[in-house]
Specification:
alpha+beta, binds acetyl coenzyme *A
């Protein structure tokens, strides 16, 4: 497996990978019925393209004998500034995709309630936004390696803080084994509408979203 930085030239291939592996499989997308496997989702694609634009994302590529390449996994990372989440929440008002709005409203509102910028006194954060591994390559440690490499990218670029909204128990385990700690949690059964109905009925074994963080010290090295 080769691990490479993702550039704008890889965007189409990365989006194609996500359409077949992340869009339908990620626990919140699945709960909201965001899209079918292989189909496109314009707003989620814009969200991914924005992260790619920051040039801090990494992909795992399987180079086959004939020289052809297949993306086995990606981690899309972006830079987050203090006003970004409030602006993104505001922008959701004009979203035409009710499923996308449901998911991102929950994530943005949670992040606004638990202000990591103030807590850690930082002006920007390295935001791990999308972690996705092709279903035929799962269980081989690829996601773990992508997160590990993201930590190295964050360190190299001088970030003091990383964050991630991990939506399922497997991604939560992966972040924790890379030194991330839980800052706050949103149990899915407690995210309800005015009638007490669960807004995102996420399937077991996933029961909560975790906002995780990792403080980076300049002299420390990761394994
Ligand atoms: N069942 C049991 N354990 C699992 C599973 C599973 N389905 N998936 C991962 N794990 C465990 C592994 O056993 C391993 O534990 P270990 O280190 O104790 O051996 C650990 O999690 C790391 O596993 P990896 O092999 O590195 O994970 P993988 O490459 O399979 O990718 C991922 C995991 C990214 C969650 C993949 O299943 C996926 O793409 N799912 C759909 C999209 C998704 O949910 N992404 C995360 C959303 S959060 C975010 O994007 C920030």
């Amino acid at each position: 497996m080769e691990y490479k930085m993702i550039g704008p030239e890889h965007s189409d291939q990365v989006i194609e990978h996500l359409r077949h592996n992340f869009f339908a499989d990620e626990p919140l997308n699945k709960a909201a019925g965001l899209c079918q496997n292989g189909s496109s989702c314009a707003e989620l694609e814009d969200h991914c393209a924005e992260a790619i634009h920051h040039r801090m994302s990494v992909m795992a590529v399987d180079v086959k004998d004939a020289g052809t390449c297949k993306i086995a996994g990606v981690v899309l990372n972006g830079i987050l500034k203090p006003d970004d989440t409030a602006k993104a929440l505001e922008k959701l008002d004009s979203s035409g995709d009710a499923h996308f709005r449901k998911i991102f409203e929950m994530l943005h509102r949670h992040n606004l309630k638990h202000n990591l910028f103030e807590h850690f006194d930082v002006e920007s954060m390295f935001d791990v936004r999308i972690l996705s591994v092709d279903s035929s390559y799962r269980g081989q440690g690829i996601a773990n390696e992508l997160v590990k490499r993201s930590v190295a990218v964050a360190r190299k670029n001088g970030f003091r803080l990383m964050k991630a909204d991990a939506t399922g128990i497997f991604s939560q385990k992966i972040f924790r084994s890379n030194g991330f700690e839980v800052f706050s949690e949103q149990p899915y059964c407690k995210y309800t509408d005015e009638n007490g109905k669960v807004i995102l009925p996420v399937e077991a074994p996933h029961i909560k979203m975790q906002l995780l963080y990792k403080a980076i010290c300049g002299d420390e090295q990761d394994d």
